[in-house]
Amino acid sequence: MSELCRHEWKEKDFHSNLAAQAKRDPHGLKAAVDYSESEKMDVLHPYRVGCVRALNTAPLCRGIEKELLFASPAELAQMLRREELDAALVSIVEPLWHDAYDILDGVAVACLGEVKSVFLAHRDPLEEIRLIYHDPGSLSSVALLRVLLAERGIKPEFRPLPSQDRASQVDNVLLIGDAALDFLFHPHDHNIFDLGEAWYDLTRLPFVFAVWALRRSIDHSRLRSILRETRDFGMETLDRIIHERPQYTLDFRRDYLSWHIHYHLGEDEKRGIRRFMELLDKHGLGPVHPPRFVW
After folding, report:
1. What is each CA distance from 55 to 158, 239, 248, in whole angstroms?
2. Which of 42, 112, 140, 141 could form a disulfide with 91 if both were Cys (CB 3.0 to 4.6 A apart)?
């Protein structure tokens, strides 16, 4: 049997096992254990795939964590451009700003309203802000905040935050992901400008923060199937993810992963992307390229 055939059979066995275990164990515990004890499956081989390590990405990489390269959104975007990765869960602006990727249809990290983990923590009144520090790993969030403030006639300077330890020390800081949640769960005297809520107030549309971007120059048909099935398994076992993760509190994890974040990319989300593209162009944050969604 050829190496390619062996990998195809491994992939089929992997997903068949996940489906069967999920039916027998709704929490998905046994399936997760089975996979963690078997590092030989190489389900993603020969693809090189990257992801952000965060609470909100857990449902999209459930069962394939050991095969992923984890990095910040900005680092993943750079690796894609250098062709060091074949696909990555990246900021939505990466495939909009660079016409080299297909976007996996149906799967995203998105919100409809308050997102909780992407916000501007500010001491200065919004209208008086002149300088904002930001997580150096962020891409979509910086662009989104620029748009939201520009719509209010506010155009501050943005600088990378030298260290996450400085977040509470500066007057105005944009935080994302687990660093943002860590900030919320510690004492601070900042006001919180939630970007998901502000986007919804402006557009009445969802905002898509991240998508699976696939390099257009490769054949990624098999990878698309794996990533969709992985998301499906993550959603089928979401309750288990909520209970087994150690961060924050159980009630918060339940609200955050079940309500504040959602993982589908449908027509409303695509309308949100198109509106974001219009505003990026309006405020000189382009050029942007029409996204190409592939199933």
Report:
1. 26, 13, 10
2. 140
Number of separate domains in the chain: 1
Say if CB 216 and CB 101 are below 8 A apart: yes
| 209 backbone dihedrals φ, ψ, rounded to 5° | -90, -40
For residue 14, being part of any structural domain is answered with: yes
- Per the domain annotation, does 7 fall within a domain? yes
CB 73 within 8 A of CB 91: yes
H-type helices in the chain, by residue range? 3-24, 29-36, 73-81, 93-97, 140-150, 177-184, 195-203, 221-236, 238-244, 250-255, 267-282
In this prediction, residue 53 has a pLDDT band, given cuts at 50, 70 and 90, of very high
CATH number, domain containing residue 91: 3.40.190.10
- The reply to whether 18 falls in a domain is yes
Specify if 13 maps to a domain: yes
Interatomic CA distance for residues 200 and 185, integer angstroms: 24
Rounded to whole angstroms, what are the CA distances from 223 to 59, 73, 190? 17, 20, 43
Exposure letters 184-205 (e unless 16+ CB within 10 A, then b): beeeeebebbbbbbbbbeebeb
For the stretch 107-149, pLDDT in tens is 999 999 999 999 999 999 999 999 999 999 899 999 999 999 9
* Structural domain containing residue 34: 3-110+207-248+287-294
Tell me whether strands 101-104 and 293-294 are parallel, antiparallel or unpaired.
Answer: parallel
